[in-house]
Structure formats: C-alpha cells, structure tokens
Design goal:
With 333 residues, the chain is α+β, with helices and mostly antiparallel strands. It contains 9 helices and 12 strands. Helix content is 40%, strand content 16%. Helix 2 packs antiparallel against helix 9.
C-alpha cells in the first residue's frame, strides 16, 4: 500500500522530470549568486572604512574639561569652586562660602578628633588601605546637612561596594559644640538605615575642637560661616573622595551623588585596587570634569571603541560568509 510520503515523493519526482530546474539551481541563478557575494563584501569593507574614520576624530571635540582651565593649568572660577559667591550680589554672611578644589592635596592625617564613643582618634587611623568618603556636616543642622547625609545614604545603598570592605566613610561635624553623644545618635540612625554587615567598622562619625576642624576644612577647601543671630552655619554641600594615603581625589557637589559616578571615583581613588574590568573599560571612555564634579564621556574614545567593536563584528561576519560559501560547492550543470 502506498503511503502519503510515497505519493508525495512520486509527485515531486514527476515534477522534477518535467522541469529540470527544480533539481538544481539554473546557471543564471548560480552566476547571480556568485556575483552578489563580492558586492556584499565590498559593501561591508566600505562600512569598515567609514567606521575606521572615527579613529581620526579630533580629541579637542571630546575634551569637555579644557574650557574649565586657564593657562598654566589653573582652574577657572566656575570650575574651581561650587560656590565662593560674588560679594557684589550676595549677603555678607554668604561671602566666601563654598568649596575650593584642592585636587591631589594631602590632608593632615595627624589631626585629633573624637569618635562616637568620645575616644580621641587620629584622622590617620581611618586611612591606609581603603579610599575614604569625607562628609562635612553638623549634627543639629535643620536643613541641608540632613538632606546631604540622606542622599549619601541612598547612593551607598545603590553601590555594590560595601562600607567597611571596599571603602570607608568619615562624617565629621564642623561645629565644635557638637558632642560625641550627638555623633552616636546619628551613627545609630544611619547604620541602621544602611543595614549591611561590617558597616559599623567603616562608617565613622566624628567631632572635634575648632583648631582641628579648621585645619581639615581649610585643607579640603571647604568654607563656611557662622551666623550668631540664628546660631546656624552657612555652608556649601558636597562630599569629597580621598585616597588611602589621604590625598584629595574627587569632589561631588550638591545633594545627589550618582552611584555609578561614585563607584568610578572610588575605583580611581583606590588606584584600581577595587572594581572590575568593566569599571576599567568605562573609565577609559570617561573623564572626571572638575567643573561639574561628574564623569563625562570622552567622545573620541567612545567612537574608537565602537569602531573597533564594529570592525571585529563585521570581520567575523565576512569570515562566516566566505567559509559558508566554500562549504556548499555548486552543483554541476
């Protein structure tokens, strides 16, 4: 008995006998296939050539920080500080308030403060092996300081790095009248909200006397003024990234510290001792902008990297096409 498959094969064989072109590609079709391959390869080579041209993009187009510098390497007023304010436009209380950038300057590690338990400690006790985030606030501040510390907490919670493992945090009050008891209360609140093991050994809340506070704030370029009428401080807002040796590496201004930028800053401050190869790739394509306190893309490096990846992918595609053509020999006419 003849099955459906047998009948289907018989029908196909009869059709092939009546139309030989079903048995093998026609000569004209094979010739068109042979002619199309060089055209495809030529098109791909043209694309590669265009991508390779991206390597010649002038670096001047990508160097976004060049406009922030003055002859001799100095920073322009807009780049060098967030806010030493124009004395002709602001009240006397705010004159001189702001943050001056002191990149690569050494902070005095022999300064003595008190920790949350009231024990005298050297600033250098928190340096040596890990980068440090320095946060300058005062504990009875009704507005900005709490907002700054809350935003820092949110960024730390988004980081894959852990306080006390890959880096430490030092929160120092610049009010000499703040007490270790106030520091202990803040410490308990923020460690509880952070909620990661080991953070108690890496997030330090300190107080100190006027001399030690002034020495540190002057070293990092942090300027503030006390208002005796309101008994409050006028001050700028931001955090500072320090190397394990106590040198100033990066500044972050304002109240929001993107976790991605913060991670890159910690990787750089650690001299690449923490982080991953992906961090190194991103740092190759990014550059810290002192004017904004953020990382910006370096356009010509991004284009070079993209061109390299494109060339690699197209090269693999051409290789697959050529080898695929060889693995399917043409049938004889």
């Amino acid at each position: 008995m003849q099955t459906d498959s047998d009948r289907g094969g018989w029908i196909f064989n009869r059709a092939r006998e009546s139309n030989p072109s079903l048995a093998r590609p026609s000569l004209a079709l094979r010739q068109r296939r042979g002619q199309s391959r060089p055209r495809v390869i030529s098109l791909l080579l043209a694309v590669i050539f265009c991508c390779g041209a991206a390597w010649d993009v002038p670096a001047a187009l990508a160097d976004t920080s060049s406009s922030s510098t003055l002859p001799g390497g100095g920073l322009s007023p807009a780049a060098g500080r967030t806010g030493t304010l124009n004395s002709k436009r602001v009240p006397a209380l705010l004159r001189g308030v702001g943050i001056d950038q002191r990149l690569n300057q050494q902070v005095p590690l022999d300064l003595v403060f008190r920790d949350a338990s009231g024990k005298p400690v050297r600033l250098g006790d928190y340096f040596g092996s890990k980068p440090v985030i320095l946060s300058l606030i005062y504990f009875n501040c009704p507005n900005l300081c709490t907002m700054e510390e809350n935003d820092l907490l949110q960024s730390l919670r988004l980081l894959k790095f852990d306080v006390g493992k890959q880096f430490d945090v030092v929160t120092l009050s610049f009010n000499p009248h703040d007490t270790p008891e106030m520091a202990a209360n803040k410490r308990a609140i923020y460690l509880g909200l952070y909620g990661r093991k080991g953070a108690e050994n890496g997030w330090h809340f300190l107080t100190g006397d006027e001399a030690s506070i002034r020495a540190l704030t002057d070293a990092v370029g942090f300027h503030y003024r006390y208002d005796p009428n309101t008994q409050l401080y006028a001050h700028a807002v931001g955090i500072i990234i320090l190397t394990p040796q106590g040198r100033i590496s990066r500044y972050f201004y304002g109240l929001q510290y993107p976790a991605g930028d913060l991670r890159l800053a910690l990787v750089q401050a650690s001299n690449d001792k923490i982080g991953s190869p992906v961090d190194q790739l991103i740092l190759y394509c990014c550059q810290y902008d002192p004017a904004t306190g953020k990382y910006d893309w370096i356009v010509h490096r991004v284009l070079m990297l993209g061109a390299g990846v494109t060339i690699l992918c197209l090269g693999i595609l051409i290789l697959v096409m050529v080898r695929g053509g060889r693995s399917h020999p043409q049938a004889s006419v």
